[in-house]
Amino acid sequence: MSDPRITSSIFTRGAVDLSALRTPAPAPARPTAPAQPGPSGGLPGTAGGGVIDISEATFQSEVLERSLTTPVIVDFWAEWCEPCKQLSPVLERLAAEGGGAWVLAKIDVDANPRIAQMFRVQGIPMVYAVVGGQPIDAFSGVVPEAQLRQWIQAVLKAGGVTVAEPEDPRLDEADDALMSGDLDAAERAYKKILAESPADAAAEAGLAQVGLARRVAGADPGAAIAAAQANPDDVEAQLLAADIEVLSGQAEAAYARLVGLVRRTAGDDREKVRQHLVGLFAVAGPEDPAVASARRALASALF
Q: Which residues are catalytic?
């Protein structure tokens, strides 16, 4: 699936002709806040939970006009469609979790063939994002929930809606395993997340923490730091000392220690130290100011 913020889509203005299903509408307004729930707990005009069944008679008001202020995700489905039975419940659950930030509009293609034709639906399940009265992106088939969450977040950002990133239960499970000391279970859980979402920074950081915890297991912190001070060119002693410093909340000292070691080493030893330092960066994450500063220092040491 594409990210509607950065990827040119085939669903640009005019590519999907919806004129037969609507009357002229006012100019789109970018939303600044999610719609407020109605008395039933859902959005005004919905059956509750941000999900609504759409017919040709309600398409203009509940999809096109609503999308002027709230992003609408349209799910084309049919009763006979087995893949739809996998995707639709996930979309409905995510819509409920969204708390009104977006609306899920469900369209039965058998009951509404003209709408499906207007959207050029050739197979189902087919999902469109509608913002400002126009489709902005789409995908077909069943996709993993993690990927679906990312796509919805991109749609909301494209619609100008600021929402908090949803909590990921998979990440909670992995973090719990790490905190309890079950490193094998934590490693499996983080790797599973990364297999589904390769760019997940939190999972990358968690996996780096697993490696860090394994390296320092059984080490005496005081003795390790003392050994590193006594043997400044002992690569293994310096690496262990840096690991302990990171775990002790002294990450900047750890980074400086290894940058200095990069300057004093060469060949395989230098590469080993560099890789170890990059692994420690992953523990903190790329947005940590100390990491940014240490990366610049590392670049200077290397070149």
A: 81, 84
